[in-house]
């Protein structure tokens, strides 16, 4: 197919098709790239050029995205090979759950999964509600207009993650700055990203050593002490990598999803009014808002084919990079009726925002809980909440792996 000149990288693939650049152009930051709908209809597995100059196959239909996420022929571990294509322009770091295949992935996930059982996460609910209420108290005291990102969407997830790991309150800003820089696509230089990685690794290494000497009642201590019947336990490298994983998934992703959910609700006041009138809709609304989200940039979804695979009319060769577009899959009209409309009472909602298969997000229940409590807190405290500026006046953060505005001013 021939793409518009603004979408192409000036290359053609072996079939003579114009090759697009990824990320695809997004005229409206509140919506997915318009090209996704076109690709789903005409070229569901399409060649693209990544910001690093590497090439990949972009997969846009739900059925194919779901297959890539679960098919063992598409490897995460192969992304750590020195010559593997990569999406982010930085050197590779430690192995983590994000970049493992079985049996390594199975072993590590088994060791850490006990900290993320539904029962354990539910026991955290009262404390996460306390954090949420405290943040909303501060927002109310400061008065309108207020920045929802600074008052809630950013501090809530980072506070929860830091408390989970046992990071002292005084160090949370350092933690946040390091992780912000590490998630850069183009906002910071590769040297700055690596410097942030070194800073975070050094800090986590000291924290691990301190908790090994003086155990505490936190996740990091539990992970240090976690072992299987055969004596297997996490190495320091694995503990460091898991700390990175929590920051990316537990902080950045949750902040992005919460900001996106609030913008979606507040730019359509009728949606907000329905939740104000009926709190029972909140759990289902969270699922629909997760489906509708455009926050994720796909950085954690890429895989490498370990053998030739036929997919969606394309032949993916061994060693090729494959990028499943979860945002596109979640808007697939073949799976979601009226996919471009927010339906707070959608009955069937098998969205892929938390992934699928072996790499389904370990902290999905924690993320859901944080979104639910944030929404319930805002609905209770600020039923008249509204955007303080038109959405076209929002300034969006550029060059980062997760899409969100720099500020989200609201009034009530």
Automatic annotation (TrEMBL):
<feature type="region of interest" description="Disordered">
    <location>
        <begin position="1"/>
        <end position="31"/>
    </location>
</feature>
<dbReference type="InterPro" id="IPR017972">
    <property type="entry name" value="Cyt_P450_CS"/>
</dbReference>
<dbReference type="InterPro" id="IPR002397">
    <property type="entry name" value="Cyt_P450_B"/>
</dbReference>
<keyword id="KW-0408">Iron</keyword>
<keyword id="KW-0479">Metal-binding</keyword>
<dbReference type="InterPro" id="IPR036396">
    <property type="entry name" value="Cyt_P450_sf"/>
</dbReference>
<keyword id="KW-0560">Oxidoreductase</keyword>
<dbReference type="InterPro" id="IPR001128">
    <property type="entry name" value="Cyt_P450"/>
</dbReference>
<comment type="similarity">
    <text>Belongs to the cytochrome P450 family.</text>
</comment>
<feature type="compositionally biased region" description="Polar residues">
    <location>
        <begin position="1"/>
        <end position="11"/>
    </location>
</feature>
<keyword id="KW-0503">Monooxygenase</keyword>
<keyword id="KW-0349">Heme</keyword>
<dbReference type="Pfam" id="PF00067">
    <property type="entry name" value="p450"/>
</dbReference>
<protein>
    <submittedName>
        <fullName>Cytochrome P450</fullName>
    </submittedName>
</protein>
